[in-house]
Design brief:
It is a single chain. This protein is an alpha/beta fold. The protein contains 22 helices and twelve strands. The strands form three sheets. A six-stranded parallel sheet has the order 1-10-7-4-2-3, sandwiched between helices. The protein is about 50% helix and about 10% strand. The protein is elongated. A hairpin with a 4-residue loop joins β5 (about 220-225) and β6. The N and C termini lie far apart (about 75 Å). The structure holds iron/sulfur cluster.
């Protein structure tokens, strides 16, 4: 069973399914989808409120977050050393490490490993890194049956959708829509009852677990000194994925390594709180190599695929801090833009404020030119982030880079900004312009000081918002007449 790519090819223009860069069109569509707006409207009161409560209950939460951030910073400063230690530790325990420069290379490594094993059936636990490299369509093209086993991922795989949230991939779907989707493989109409729907998925997935020859997972963290892969989940599917099949392949971005086991508690404390408002997730799995002699379960083979896919480039750039991200999704829940348009509008694998940084970095700035502007720069994302990533600052840096992109230079915009610069440099010209503006537009709009429609090329400003009209009186005139005496 794998419906992902057949659905995608049939619905190339459907923003729920296909990769695109149409942020403006997709966000417009999202704003006009009432069912999505109801779900997004509840996000701040559900996940957002749980995040806030969880922080309140952690003594010294600020210090814990600061330490987690510091560990990330120090690890990235010597990333290649820690990755080399990780490789040695994994090999010492009988595992193998594979290095992938990009998504295609990673998919090829995974497919080759599965073929060498003579396998055709794979179960997967939730992994944003495998979404990033489009592993499912690659496996399907290679004739390998792939089943997502996280409930949300299973639902969207059946629907042929992309994840709309880092933590809750099916967040955009109502219970009624989920019942419709699951009724197709059930061959009967399932009721809109959460227990029944989850029970159906559980029964289906148990059979898939039992039949699978390979289990594929991501990795929340990889501890260099012990070669331990750490998986954090709430459903237990990650344990079955990594323990039942004969081969386990884990895929992770190279920034997921942490040096020591003693570093782990800082991240475990902040990840669950930021992601779901829990003190600790229901399952935290530590996987150190394949099954050893005398052990009764676990895979016979363990492989770790370490993905670069642009991360080395980002590491040496001013935006290296984006590699601190532990994929908790808290910045999405806090962001007024995400809470208005949802995850699919962002077009890439990662959505919300961190997606607005990562997607241009991984997928090209010009192709994703609207994303750095998909933010009010209110700072809610940074406040919510468990490792205090300065997302607004990075968005501003990307906006600045856009300004210097030759492909996006507009003659008209250059002319307008050139005139503005000239006006600001010449006090007499500035005074004349403001005098004219207040005597004309400012006075016409005295009663309703908002311009609803700007003319010509400026009309974009007023497509979705009003523009303040100049005041009927300049500040300097008011100051000369009244302000001076008042003070
Ligand atoms: S940027 Fe911070 S808040 Fe957003 S997903 Fe990453 S770690 Fe979580």
């Amino acid at each position: 069973m794998n419906t992902t790519s057949s659905s995608a090819s049939e619905t190339e223009t459907d923003y729920l399914r296909s990769k695109h860069h149409e942020f403006l069109a997709a966000s417009d569509k999202a704003l006009r989808t009432p069912s999505l707006q109801i779900i997004l409207g509840q996000l701040g009161d559900t996940l957002g409120e749980r995040n806030r409560q969880a922080w309140r209950m952690l003594p010294n939460s600020d210090l814990v977050r600061q330490r987690a951030r510091q560990i990330k910073d120090e690890t990235l400063a010597n990333l290649h050393e820690h990755l080399a230690t990780l490789e040695k530790s994994i090999e010492a325990r009988g595992g193998q490490v594979h290095w992938a420069d990009d998504g295609d290379a990673a998919c090829k490594i995974v497919i080759d490993l599965i073929r060498q094993r003579g396998a055709t059936r794979v179960v997967k636990s939730k992994s944003m890194t495998t979404e990033e490299i489009h592993l499912n369509p690659a496996l399907e093209t290679a004739g390998i049956e792939t089943v997502e086993t996280d409930l949300g991922e299973y639902i969207i795989q059946l629907a042929g959708h992309r994840p709309s949230h880092i933590v809750g991939p099916a967040l955009h779907l109502s219970a009624k829509e989920v019942a419709e989707i699951l009724s197709v493989p059930a061959g009967r109409q399932l009721p809109v009852e959460r227990e029944t729907l989850a029970g159906f998925a559980r029964t289906e997935l148990r059979q898939k677990f039992a039949a699978a020859e390979v289990g594929i997972s991501g990795a929340n963290f990889a501890v260099a000194e012990t070669g331990t892969i750490v998986l954090v989940s709430n459903e237990g599917n990650a344990r079955l994925t990594t323990a039942l099949p004969k081969m386990h392949i884990a895929i992770m971005g190279m920034e997921k390594v942490i040096p020591r086991f003693a570093d782990l508690p800082y991240f475990l404390k902040v990840l669950a709180r930021a992601a779901t408002g829990q003190k600790l997730s229901c399952y935290t799995s530590f996987i150190t190599g394949a099954r050893r002699e005398g052990e009764t379960d676990g895979p016979e083979e363990f492989h770790l695929v370490v993905l670069d896919n642009g991360r080395s480039r980002i590491l040496g750039s001013p935006l290296r801090e984006s590699l601190f991200c532990i994929r908790c999704g808290a910045c999405l829940n806090a962001c007024p833009i995400y809470r208005s348009v949802g995850g699919h509008a962002y077009g890439g694998t990662y959505s919300g404020p961190i997606g607005a940084v990562l997607t241009p970095l991984y997928d090209g700035l010009v192709a994703n030119q609207h994303l750095p502007h998909a933010s009010s720069l209110c700072g809610a994302c940074q406040a919510a982030c468990p490792v205090k990533i300065q997302i607004p600052e990075m968005l501003v840096q990307l906006r600045e880079q856009l300004h210097h992109e030759p492909a996006l230079k507009s003659r008209w915009e250059n002319f307008a900004y050139g005139m503005w610069a000239k006006t600001l440099k010449k006090p007499w010209l500035y005074r004349l312009s403001t005098w004219l503006a207040t005597r004309t537009i400012g006075r016409w709009y005295r009663k309703n000081p908002w311009l609803k429609k700007l003319p010509g090329k400026l009309h974009g400003w007023t497509q979705k918002r009003d523009f303040p009209a100049p005041a009927p009186q300049r500040f300097r005139d008011w100051w000369d007449k009244e302000g001076r005496h008042e003070s």
